[in-house]
Design brief:
This protein is an alpha+beta fold. Helix content is about 30%, strand content about 20%. The C terminus is likely disordered.
Length: about 210
Amino acid sequence: MKRLTLIVMLLLACCRGQSQEAKVLQVPWNHVPWSNEEILIPPLRQKVQESNSQPDTADLIIEEAIKHLGKPYRYGAKGPKAFDCAGFARYVYLQFGIELPGGSRPQYTKGRKINDPKQLQRGDLVFWQGREANGHIGHTGIVVDVDTLSGRFRFIHAATSTGVIFSYSNEAYYARRYVGACRLIGNRTKAADPFPAKKSSGKRKR
């Protein structure tokens, strides 16, 4: 009798676990909770092949940007071997026929302004004050993915201390210097990818 009871309890636990797993898989992308593990973007070309859909311009922009992860920062460099922040954004967009100025401040004057971070989309340009935090725009990044519930976003940029990396808008250094964003391409025609969690709380300086 005890053995039968144990078997029934195990079966119920298994069914309950499967039910919970199904619910997780059905959660909309922008409700995915943050966890302690970094989720890097898989190769976009592979995703396109698997879904039998065509990538939009924003996907291709991010795909191009990711190719340069780890390349060094050098002031005034416009790629492809090294970049400064504005040079990186300029180089990536230029691959798609969109020419940008070479500085962060003039880049901010281009495109359509996006005032609400919750409205950001992949491929948008985002801007921060420089290290002096004197109100002048001094840094540019490219949005990779967005949590549309909170307005937090991940971006790729050329940072002075690390070169081309991913960073998060809620890192203290960037959170207190954020200025705004602009959109140089049309609105996305499909949903964005899930917003990845931040792996650590360490500060990254530009």
